């Protein structure tokens, strides 16, 4: 319990300090573009508890999680295939590198032509953007499995499915999660961009519409909510990663102790 309290305190001291500095520095501000933090905090409660929380934040979170989940599943499946068949990975590497280099902003026009401006376009774009880091890391994770382990598996005559399930996937998981962490941040960016150009609704649309209507305080509240969502999703992903890869952390600590 004491350790958890120390960890929380260590993570919060700098944000609390910065918020306090912002609060006192902006107190009494008459600037139209840099309102006082006290005004933003007051408007934050009015707007986001609970009308816009239900109408804008929740749909954005659902789109983010849906697109990221689709991208994760597709990327891991393709990564396992490409990592297991070296000739196929070599043949598709230029195409993969080309596709992953495309910025999400450049994809929006073609996505809107193909899928319209509704929810499908937003989810597919998030999935497309998020899959490339996971795909490349999965391929690298599969190909990095120790050849000795493959020889041991062959000596025990494990089937292809059992090798995949008990050897390849566990060995590749640290790389997969490293790619997924990068992909999650890219997914948040893709979510905001698609909501800014797509049909009305969502946090991205709320921020852009507030800026266009010169409701600057509301715009700031939207940015703060976006930050909270990004932080919360990253923390949740970290907890999931620590649970799934608990064996890997113990294995790594054991190797460090042996040195």
Give unreliable regions as ranges.
none
Q: β content, as a range?
A: under 5%
Count of DSSP-assigned helices: 11
Q: Nearest-angstrom radius of gyration?
A: 23 Å
Class computed from helices, strands and strand pairing:
mainly alpha
Major sheet: size, sense and barrel closure?
A: none
The gross shape turns out to be flat
Average pLDDT score:
87
Order of helices and strands: HHHHHHHHHHH
N→C terminal distance: 31 Å
Subcellular location: Cell membrane
Keywords: Cell membrane, Membrane, Transmembrane, Transmembrane helix, Transport
Transmembrane segments: 12-34, 61-86, 98-117, 213-233
Protein name: ABC transporter permease
Explain what you see.
The chain is an all-alpha fold and 259 residues long. The chain contains eleven helices and no strands. Helix content is 86%, strand content 0%. It starts with a helix and ends with a helix. The mean pLDDT is 87.
Descriptive terms for the model:
transport, membrane, 259 residues, cell membrane, 11 helices, mainly alpha
Give the topology.
Elements: H1 2-26, H2 37-48, H3 51-84, H4 86-101, H5 104-115, H6 119-143, H7 147-155, H8 160-197, H9 203-212, H10 216-244, H11 246-258
Organism: Aeromicrobium wangtongii
Main location: membrane
Transmembrane segments: 12-34, 61-86, 98-117, 213-233
Tell me briefly what this model is.
With 259 residues, the protein is an all-alpha fold.
